[in-house]
Amino acid sequence: MAERARQANETREAILDAAAAEFARYGFSGARLDRIIAATGFTKGAVYFHFASKKAMADAVLSGRFDAWPALVQDVRDHGGRGLSGMRLLAWRVTRTMATNIRTRAAMRLSQELRLVPQGVNPYDVWVQRFIPFLDEAVDDGDAPDSLDRARAAKTIVNCLFGVLSVAIDSGTEDQVDAELEALWRLVTPGLRTGGAG
Predict the structure, then answer these.
(1) SS (H, E, C) the chain
(2) pLDDT tens-digit profile of 6-32?
(3) pTM score, two decimals?
(4) pLDDT recorded at residue 131
(5) Mean pLDDT of all residues belonging to the chain
(6) Of 29, 154, 163, 195, which sits with the fewest C-beta atoms within 10 Å of its C-beta?
């Protein structure tokens, strides 16, 4: 029984990987079930056993779209990330995950296409709140002046960060996202150090 459950879970995950690749490339409206089924190598019946429709697949891909981020922030903290260097590491980790993880990319595209914003929660505002403590530490460490408007600076960073990511994904240049993020950071850091980013 346990072996059957394990195999069923592996099949479901393989279907979700194939669906995520399809959604990441074509979006929800352009995705086709026949291509997803072909990519899995499973029979149509096996796929429909787990997911009755394209929407059910999209819902499953979207269901965990925010789950990984608190652990990612904690991992940066666990590795000593704080202040401006910690924020830089977190920004790199976020863009790297979104640019290379197919399920994360698919969820991002689906969210944008379907205009899915959780009721009462703006995920970009949540990211602003995740970056503010790093800016507080930068001020405490003397790397940024106390006059820095941390909420405004964090919002600017989030806007730039997701802008770099969106352009990379839309243009198919995910392999260049590290270089683009580094260029962005060289521009932003002097403003943070002088308080001009606020």
Answers:
(1) CHHHHHHHHHHHHHHHHHHHHHHHHHHHHHCCHHHHHHHHCCCHHHHHHHCCCHHHHHHHHHHCCCCHHHHHHHHHHHCCCCHHHHHHHHHHHHHHHHHHCHHHHHHHHHHHHHCCCCCCCCHHHHHHHHHHHHHHHHHHCCCCCCCCCHHHHHHHHHHHHHHHHHHHHHHCCHHHHHHHHHHHHHHHHHHHHHCCCC
(2) 888 899 999 999 999 999 889 999 999
(3) 0.76
(4) 94
(5) 88
(6) 29
